[in-house]
Specification:
Helices cover about 30% and strands about 20% of the residues. It has about 425 residues and is of the alpha/beta class. The structure holds guanosine-5'-diphosphate (GDP), 6-O-phosphoryl inosine monophosphate and magnesium ion.
Length: about 425
């Protein structure tokens, strides 16, 4: 196996960073292909926590080259701050970090627009406020700045002017917010471009060459399939292709395939922001899971909504991303609970559905919950209790692919492999 994609199989925060970091040990390249600093990927090494937003989670492995590919929306200032933090722990040279010259730049205007809309619009999404949606809008409207433009003053000024033609009106007339002048923003971006220059690369050609020479490539997804712009619970989604398909448009592969598509799934469900969540628990058990699981967003610090494992949603994510196996994380959080349930189906307008395909009105879904036997397993135990084995089998039977990894804690070592990867 030479290529593997890590894909969030729920609404994000499944533990993608931790699994990427772990598999990074055996990987040559770790590639981010979509999203931006809306992501918050936590890695804990020797009790020290590091949260990565734009840097791929292979960055802590000296054997890995980290690649930010063209499908990413890139925030240069936040990136340099993040890099400085990581460099206080491990050396990162341009040989070990490549940023696509074609990645889309997130500007101050995108962040202001994101915040203004969330504050005023009747269509509040509960975004991370990082300017992700507005940056992807400019990309789709063919007026975005690309990373290479940060190295060319003339191109930068020209493109910023174009990208501001309609936004000027929005800022002034619709949202009444102050924004920096185009000249100010251009100078800020050019100064950032100077610092980024050594890392800026044609990552498509670089990846193509490395993959052809037999290097092992891990594609690290951000967010999760249920937040995908096409497959997700629209309109409560992010603005990129978070499913495995995003690898092909956001980074590229040499042989047109990704050998293993590993879905990361929590043993329960969480969601941050607005939007339907059929298995949300609104009583004390939800609060208990939230506390034990420390369910606070790694990017915004917001409380994550907690719910039982949603099998119809997971089944859909497996299909929508052609997942080949699953990593089940945070099993320790459910361990010891007195009551345990899973959602096997939804009832919507008198009909029962066991897969959350698009078009289903999840706002109207009543979960069909099945009570399962609680388990109390520890990472250190020699073998799993029959109750945990049943829980895992229930998932495998429902979705039709194996659970290859079981995680029992945030640390690198708190994990069991039931299958080998890379
Ligand atoms: P990501 O966005 O998918 O990388 O996930 P986040 O980092 O946003 O959220 C996952 C959280 O769960 C982080 O705080 C991790 O340290 C933590 N975590 C990951 N795996 C496990 C696990 O198996 N058990 C526990 N208790 N925590 C975990
Ligand atoms: P990782 O990679 C969880 C959610 C936001 C909001 C919606 C749109 O850490 O799993 P955006 O700022 O992208 O326009 O917000 O998507 N969201 C995430 N939720 N984990 C993430 O990333 C997320 N990135 C965005 O809360 O509901
Ligand atoms: Mg996260």
């Amino acid at each position: 196996m030479n290529s593997l994609a890590i894909i969030g199989a729920q609404w994000g925060d499944e533990g993608k960073g931790k699994i990427t970091d772990l598999l990074g040990e055996k990987t040559d390249l770790v590639v981010r292909f979509q999203g931006g600093n809306n992501a918050g990927h936590t890695i804990i090494v020797d009790e020290e926590k590091i949260v990565l937003h734009q840097l791929p989670s292979g960055i802590l492995r000296e054997n890995c080259v980290s690649v930010i590919a063209h499908g990413v929306v890139f925030e240069p200032e936040a990136f340099l701050e993040e890099l400085a933090k990581v460099e206080s722990k491990i050396k990162v040279s341009p040989e070990r970090l490549k940023i696509s010259l074609n990645a889309t730049v997130i500007t101050t205007y995108h962040k202001i627009l994101d915040a203004a809309r969330e504050g005023k619009s009747s269509n509040k999404i509960g975004t991370t406020g990082k300017g992700i949606g507005p940056a992807y809008e400019d990309k789709a409207a063919r007026r975005a700045l690309k990373v290479k433009d940060l190295l060319n003053k003339e191109a930068l000024l020209k493109k910023l002017k174009i990208s501001m033609e309609e936004k000027g009106h929005l800022f002034k007339e619709v949202y009444s917010v102050e924004v920096p002048s185009i000249e100010e923003e251009a100078l800020r971006l050019l100064a950032l471009g100077d610092k980024l220059a050594p890392y800026i690369t044609d990552t498509f050609s670089y990846l193509d060459k490395e993959a052809r020479s037999g290097k092992k490539v891990l594609f690290e997804g951000a967010q999760g399939v249920l937040l995908d712009i096409d497959y997700g619970s629209y309109p409560y989604v992010t603005s990129s292709s978070t499913s495995a398909a995003g690898v092909f448009t956001g980074a590229g592969t040499t042989n047109g395939q990704v050998d293993e598509r590993l879905g990361i799934v929590k043993a329960y469900t969480t969601r941050v922001g607005e939007g339907p969540m059929p298995t949300e628990i609104t009583d004390a058990i939800g609060v208990e899971i939230q506390k034990i699981g420390n369910e606070f967003g790694a990017t915004t610090g917001r409380k994550r909504r907690c719910g039982w494992l949603d099998l119809p949603a997971l089944k859909y994510a497996v299909k929508a991303s052609s997942l080949t196996s699953l990593a089940l994380t945070k099993v320790d959080v459910l361990s010891g609970l007195k009551t345990l349930k899973v959602c096997e189906a939804y009832e919507i307008n008198g009909k029962t559905y066991d897969c959350a395909f698009p078009g289903l009105d999840l706002e109207e879904a009543t979960p069909v919950l099945k009570e399962v036997k609680p388990f109390n397993d520890k990472f250190e135990s020699e073998s799993y209790t029959s109750e945990l084995q049943e829980y895992i089998k229930l998932i495998e039977d429902a979705v039709g692919i194996p659970v290859g990894i079981v995680a029992f804690g945030p640390e690198r070592k708190q994990i069991h492999f039931r299958k080998s990867y890379l």
